[in-house]
Amino acid sequence: MQARRPHSSAVWRLIAVTAVVAWTFAAAARAEVVRPRPTPHAAPIASNALTVEDPFEGLNRRFYAIHQGLDHAILRPLALGYSHATTGWIRQSLHNFVTELGEPVVFGNDVLQLRIKRAATTLGRFLTDATAGIGGLFDPATKMGLPHHDNGFGTTLGRYGIAPGPYIFLPLIGPSNLRDLLGTGVDFYSDPLGRIHYHDRGDVLVGIAVIGGLDQRANAEADLQQIQSMGADSYATLRSLYTQERQADIRGGKPVSIEDLPDFDDPGADPAPAAPTPGPAPAARAPAATDPGVAAPSAAEVAIANPDSGPDAAYFLAAPSPPASASAPSGPPIEL
Q1: 32 Cβ contact list (under 8 Å, min separation 6)
Q2: Which of 34, 89, 150, 164 has the maximum number of C-beta atoms within 10 A of its C-beta?
Q3: Residue 32 half-sphere exposure toward CB, CA atoms < 13 A
Q4: How would DSSP label each residue in 222-242?
Q5: Cα–Cα dist 136/126, whole Å
Q6: Each residue of 265-284: b (16+ CB within 10 Å) or e?
Q7: Burial of residue 158 (number of CB atoms within 10 Å: 0-12, 13-18, 19+)
Q8: Does residue 160 contact residue 331 with C-beta atoms inside 8 Å?
Q9: Which residues of 217-255 are buried (b: 16+ CB within 10 A; e: fewer)?
Q10: 95-152 residue pLDDT tens
């Protein structure tokens, strides 16, 4: 009996399943720490960066547990197999090619964010690797001082002051928030080399997604293992790392290191007893005007040192502070 050829709908179902698996590969790699990149003006992370709006924490933790099970059973073994099968220049060329395909999206968002120097670097990098790098298989641009940097529409929205919204963790997407979910959709549908150029070539889109997802998951292995070994609550550690990394991307600051994150306790563990609060320190004696070698204090210094002695003279003597509207820019500054 002659074997029947598979129906075209079955082939497309197989491609759809492969695309979902590839999307999951990329989602697991979202925990990867961005490699340090030179920034001329690195903005510090805010002191309240650990405060994350997480109203769906219970549901997010359930999804995180599902994601961990998928990763340990399927994603991690496949990614490690890919890493061992494509060693040396083969894996590096695949990584370079996938990175090259994403440069137009990076360039577009650089322009929207008014980061002119970054946009010029991205454009120069794309043209150099497309020509001298043989379609992006090699990366001479980095050696020429044109390194790659990540960017997307979610970062653009944050650059213009759009709040991130609640933290969300989905098994097939990974750590995100409402703003970044919207940005991911815009990046996907506006990609000129992917979605637009190959919109009728599902095999090409799936192949790019699979290679990119495997490569990212393999590169993230060391960081994911370090997060798992840091403390009892890996969910909170990943949530903090993702939030601070996104803040650093938006502000153009220095990437966050895993070593700088605190250890988060298990939410089910008993809280540690609070340390006793020390009493107020005795006020230091102000130097008297009659002490030798000490000049007489001014009226403002007397008012600040003795606030209960009379009217607040420092209020009248201090320079007026600028109005709030003068310090709040109407948009992101242009970076040259």
Answers
A1: 216, 219, 220, 223, 224
A2: 164
A3: 20
A4: HHHHHHHHH-S-HHHHHHHHH
A5: 8
A6: eeeeeeeeeeeeeeeeeeee
A7: buried
A8: yes
A9: bbbbbeebeebeebeebbbbbbbbbbbbbbbbbbbbbbb
A10: 999 999 999 999 999 999 999 999 999 999 999 999 999 999 999 999 999 999 999 9
pLDDT, tens digit, 9 for 90 and up, residues 245-289: 999 999 986 665 555 555 555 565 555 555 555 555 555 555 554
Which DSSP letter does residue 53 get?
A: -
Distances (CA, A) of 332 to 28, 105, 222: 31, 19, 35
- Rg of the chain (C-alpha set): 27
Q: Could you tell me the two tokens for 53?
A: 């709006």
Contacts 24+ apart (CB under 8 A), 197-206: 202/12, 202/15, 203/15, 205/19, 206/15, 206/18, 206/19, 206/22
What are the structure tokens assigned to 238, written together? Answer: 């990943």
